[in-house]
Amino acid sequence: MLDARPAPLVQVEDLKMHFPIYSGLFRRHTGDVKAVDGVSFDIMAGQTLGLVGESGCGKSTVGRAILRLYEPTAGRVIIDGEDVAQMQPGPLRKKRPTMQMVFQDPQASLNPRMTLADIVAEPLDEHTDWTRDKKLERVHELMDQVGLNRRFANRFPHEFSGGQRQRIGIARALALKPQFIVCDEPIAALDVSIQAQVVNLLEDLQEKLGLTYLFISHDLSMVRHLAQRVAVMYLGRICELSPSSDLYARPLHPYAEALLSAVNEPDPELAATRNRIILKGDVPSPANPPKGCNFCTRCPKVMDICRQVKPDLAEVEPGRQVACHLYHNNSAAGSTGAPEANERNQQGETQ
Ligand code: SF4
Which end of the chain has less Cβ packing within 10 Å, N or C? Predict the structure, then answer.
């Protein structure tokens, strides 16, 4: 029987992004910084996947490697049926309009010598042969969509506030009518009072234009409201990928649990059940990750097997994937499933 479910718009399979280290007099290749080390996920059309983790965990590198702003070391990135990771320059250029990025720092990503109209029209100059009037018409349409007054078209970036500059960045990303947008910490550089406005704008645009987002952020509370599913990254790998509501109500992976214990919980009942978990030690270097589970040097629930065998990201409950021996069959933990593992682990902790 044919599978009637629609295929995901974005499918990332075992994506790796390693940066070579050269050292010594002859600049010999002596190792690699494994910034992204085997990341896989799907995003359905019109949905948002949140990608969260501490700074340096590799989440922004994932976004850039997906859009081929970096050349991935290995893996597949299927966007709307085509493997972007393997594309030759010609077809990749044709594909670019369908996949765009909103950057973290609007100040740094906008050319200070160009007017708003020129900045937003830049992708149109690059990918269309439209007349000047047609391009200006599209720029005005985009300014309306992102809530910028048309009278500002000839102003320069420094004449705008941080929130307005991010709206310009969003208008530029929308210029070629993309299907998929990587939002790389789009609100991190903005005042708290402005953050919600930009998030609301992104949500409105998603609804109106049917956009698909990969929303990268270290702000877990913001991702909660935006994303249907959330992937938690640690040291270049995804440790948990769950529906947002499940993850925030009951994180499974010990790192996700620690990360979420620091987030303010609006539900008083849930908040009362949550203890703050302070992790010991520093994040290891991605140039020299630990053997076995990459969280084993800091995990409060570490077992012997964790220091030997790398746990795969596998489904442990419907729709929930976790990379942890506590939840996997066949591990030395002898687990038969997540709840039993949890129970045994909690008993172990309190003994
Ligand atoms: Fe902790 Fe082991 Fe699970 Fe890694 S595999 S998160 S070290 S319990």
Answer: N
Distance, CA 187 to ligand 1 centroid (Å)?
32
84 burial class (0-12, 13-18, 19+ CB within 10 angstroms)?
buried
pTM value? 0.90
- For 42, other C-beta atoms within 10 Å of its C-beta total 16
CATH class of 1-227: alpha beta
**C-alpha 252, offset from chain centre:** 19
Atom 5 in ligand 1: residue holding the nearest Cα: 324
- How many angstroms does the Cα of residue 242 sit away from the middle of ligand 1? 17
Ligand 1 centroid vs 299 CA: distance in angstroms?
6
Å from CA of 138 to ligand 1 middle: 51
- Got the DSSP string for 301-329? T--GGGGTSPPP-EEEETTEEE--GGG-T
Print pLDDT tens along the chain (351 aa).
Answer: 555 678 899 999 999 999 999 988 888 998 999 999 999 999 999 999 999 999 889 999 999 999 999 999 999 999 999 999 999 999 999 999 999 999 987 778 899 999 999 999 999 999 999 999 999 999 999 999 999 999 999 999 999 999 999 999 999 999 999 999 999 999 988 888 899 999 999 999 999 999 999 999 998 888 988 999 999 999 999 999 999 999 999 999 999 999 998 887 777 877 777 788 888 888 899 999 999 999 999 999 999 999 999 999 999 999 999 999 999 865 444 443 444 444 444 433 333
333 lines ligand 1 (CB under 6 A): no
Residues of the chain with CATH 3.40.50.300: 1-227
What's the token pair of residue 68? 């081929």
Closest CA to 178 of 45, 340, 36: 45
Tokens 């009518």: give the residue: 177
Classify residue 101 as exposed, middle or buried by CB count within 10 Å of its CB (0-12, 13-18, 19+).
Answer: buried
